[in-house]
Specification:
Number of strands: 14
Low-confidence stretches: none
Bound molecules: nicotinamide-adenine-dinucleotide, uridine-5'-diphosphate-glucose
Strand order of the largest sheet: 3-2-1-4-5-6
CATH architecture of the largest domain: 3-Layer(aba) Sandwich
Largest sheet: 6 strands, parallel
């Protein structure tokens, strides 16, 4: 029986391996991690991540051909194919700080593979990594193997790049029916070709052949960074236009619809928002920027950096709107925040725009009351007390070094509790339940004038104005109230 071992039981490793196990009953799949609580979670009825449909997949395979373990060395040693799906955070200090990928976890995984392997392995990059990482890994593996095996024969490795394109909230559907599976390998050597074929055979059990793309290693690595940069660029483009809509009276939803009708542009990923979040877009673009700088391409680097700048501008612009509309101060005022996750249908808060918006409001001394159906109070406190980029480390290694804002932040059990006696409501995640709330009930329990700042365009602006709210919705024609209160930083 072929054995697959995946190092890293996170948002990617867990769901990806569960679907491989589901579709390949003849392959033994083990997911290993250094984090005991995470593995315990995967072995329990409360999986460590919330993802629609995932419970069902895990339930079908766990104990059959899918298992989760902290016995990293044993399972890596036994495996034929080793996926590496560990954190690749942005560096926070030293060379490339604030941009370059920190490959500490990757390198330690690679060294561990070299240490424990006694049989040939295909090592698959699942983590998102800088271009040419495969070359670095090859060096680590081959040098260490040679040392252990006296310079001759020894264990042979083939490195493949197999970046993951799943989006959170739809991970299971994306994995079951991917737009494409990308496999990069050494397609100029027989061993390289054989490794690519072996991995292609795994996916071919359920992915149509025309959706399995094979490329050289560097194209696969770069395609992942480029795909995320293109996606994020679309959001920054529509968000930039949203600011112009507010200034001119155009409606960003109408503009995006009209633009997206052009078949060359397409309708997807054109929803204006308070800003994109998630563990990947910012990190991967910064990584791309750094790579461009390293290759002496400053113009290309600054082109992509602008995507992040517009995203930061959008989050800052939102906070400025809130504060400016409320007589230029929110000090001591209760502001309800509906939604803390970076998008709906996930409990993930990594790089969520809600963190920056809440920090902005707290900086202006607001009392923030947060409700999210999937995010715990403990997670909110951690996020607000953490410095930029520190979230992207295994949980037990995350430094909590930021300001403690516990006194100014409360977590509510539902949207109505969050909004009770508040001056304003900010909608920061597009959870479906926020579309169907009883806003009249909310209005009645709030201070007047009552404000709604919709960072996701989920509310019916006309209806809310009828109730009596002052409404701001990203990129929509402004209330007279807001026109008279320009937000200047
Ligand atoms: N989250 C996504 O939607 C997504 C999608 C595509 C690609 N990616 C990329 O996939 C990689 C993993 O992302 P994630 O969201 O799953 O991260 P994650 O933090 O959820 O999971 C990573 C796991 O790796 C474990 N780990 C770290 N070092 C280890 C080691 N040496 N040995 C064993 N376990 C180790 C950590 O404890 C953690 O549980 C990143 O490179 C990310 O950029 C993420
Ligand atoms: O029109 C849109 C679409 C998305 N977003 C925001 O963009 C962020 C990212 O959303 P999404 O891409 O759906 O989720 P991720 O899970 O971050 O997935 C992205 O990042 C993953 C990690 O690399 C990739 O695998 C996926 O292909 C890529 O979509 C979220 O904050 C969304 O709210 C918008 O503001 N407007």
């Amino acid at each position: 029986m072929v054995k697959i071992c995946c190092i890293g039981a996170g948002y990617v490793g867990g769901p990806t391996m569960a679907v491989i196990a589901l579709k390949c009953p003849d392959i033994e799949v083990v997911v290993v991690d250094i984090s005991e609580p995470r593995i315990a979670g995967w072995n329990s009825d409360h999986l460590p991540i919330y993802e629609p449909g995932l419970d069902d997949v895990v339930r079908q395979c766990r104990g059959r051909n899918l298992s989760f373990s902290t016995e990293v060395h044993r399972h890596v040693s036994d495996a034929d194919i080793v996926f590496v799906s560990v954190n690749t955070p942005t560096k926070t200090c030293g060379l490339g700080a604030g941009k370059a990928a920190d490959l500490t976890y990757w390198e330690s995984a690679a060294r561990m593979i070299a240490d424990v392997s006694v049989s040939d392995k295909i090592v698959v990059e699942k983590s998102t990594v800088p271009v040419k990482t495969a070359e670095a890994i090859e060096k680590i593996l081959s040098h260490n193997t040679h040392r252990r095996h006296g310079g001759g024969g020894g264990v042979r490795y083939q490195i493949l790049s197999n970046p993951e394109f799943l989006a959170e909230g739809t991970a299971v559907a994306d994995l079951l029916s991917p737009d494409r599976v990308l496999i990069g390998g050494r397609n100029d050597t027989p061993a390289g070709l054989a490794a690519v074929a072996a991995l292609r055979d795994v996916y071919a059990r359920w992915v149509p052949p025309d959706r399995i793309l094979t490329t050289n290693l560097w194209s696969a690595e770069l395609s992942k960074l480029a795909a995320n940069a293109f996606l994020a660029q679309r959001i920054s483009s529509v968000n930039a236009i949203s600011a112009l809509c507010e200034a001119t009276g155009a409606d960003v939803a109408q503009v995006a619809h009209s633009v997206g009708k052009d078949a060359r542009i397409g309708p997807h990923f054109l929803s204006a928002s308070v800003g994109f979040g998630g563990s990947c877009f910012q990190k991967d673009i910064l990584n791309l920027v750094y790579i461009c700088e390293c290759y002496g391409l400053p113009e290309v680097a600054s082109y992509w950096r602008e995507v992040i700048r517009i995203n930061d501008y959008q989050k800052g612009r939102f906070v400025n709107r809130v504060v400016a509309s409320m007589f230029n101060t929110v000090a001591g005022k209760k502001v309800a925040v509906l939604g803390f996750a970076f998008k709906k249908d996930t409990g993930d808060t990594r790089e969520t725009p809600a963190i920056d918006v809440c920090k902005g409001l707290l900086g202006d001394k607001a009392a923030v009351s947060i409700y999210d159906p999937q995010v715990t109070g403990e997670q909110v406190s951690r996020d607000l007390a953490m410095n930029k980029f520190d979230w992207d480390h295994p949980r037990h290694l995350q430094p909590i070094t930021g300001t403690d804002v516990a006194g100014q932040v409360a977590v509510a059990a539902d949207a109505y509790e969050a909004a009770r006696e508040a001056h304003a409501v900010c909608i920061l995640t597009e959870w479906d339940e926020f579309r169907g709330l009883d806003y009249k009930r909310m209005f009645d329990a709030m201070h007047k004038p009552a404000f709604i700042f919709d960072g996701r365009n989920v509310v019916d602006v006309a209806k809310l104005r009828e109730i009596g709210f002052v409404v701001y919705s990203i990129g929509k024609p402004l209330d007279d109230w807001l026109k008279d209160m320009p937000a200047v930083a």
